[in-house]
Sequence to fold (289 residues):
Amino acid sequence: MEPHAHIPGSLAASESEEGETRYRLHRRFDRMGRLVGDQQMERLFASHVVVIGLGGVGSFAAESLLRSGVGRLTLVDFDRVCVTNSNRQLQAMRGTVGKLKAQVLADRLRLVNPQAEIEVVARFYDAATSELILDRQPKPDFVIDAIDNITAKCHLIAACTHKGLPLVSSMGAAGRFDPTSLRIEDLAETRIDPMAQEVRKILRTKYGFPAEGAFGVSAVYSVERPKEPVDLHYDDGLGFSCVCPGGKNEHHSCEERRLIYGTASYVTGSFGLFCASVAVNALSGLRPM
Fold:
């Protein structure tokens, strides 16, 4: 008997770039499988997660989901890669500036798992696009909210709650240094974070969320207070000038923002990894949704 002849499928085929077999799929996620088991891996392979917002939080969340074995991802972001994304977003590399964030990330993730189903939705999430994004087939099993626009974020949380879609929402990740200050709680129980406070207020006043008690929405947040941005002088005192490829648009403009906070990739990335952990633990059955 030849070596490895007892292994299901052809080892030679499974080790070639052209031999995308079931065996190769399991081999690719062998280490995750050893952590959670065969049944849980099958659940992850069959799961569909929608990630909305693909910046410093969402890009890390999406990649962690895929590397955990999630078999279908819908990547939602209307924006294009900007050179100022380089410190924290996985898509931001030489040669990708000006390209759609969702498409660049999808191309990257297909190299990680060619058998994954990855859909790109280059749209801004809001009330007008909500049904297009959330009422997809197959129905999403989980949604990750990595949006930094508070109006859009609140609408997404309310829409997912109304539709019964499990969701984890990332609160403010900018202006922080300490990844050990991150917490996962029901959104109603978060503290210190100014974004979470504003989101809770809007959900209660506009969307009828309860004044007391849990919201039933998981949130990733930090108990570290955000640090005010430091003035920089590399631009000879001319001040910050927006260089985003999309320029000023109806959704946001750098030049109209009151403050542009600093960010550390090890914090924003940790937010994304925490979000992915909530989804993967729920989808695999290790934690209840």
Summary: The first helix runs from residue 11 to 14.
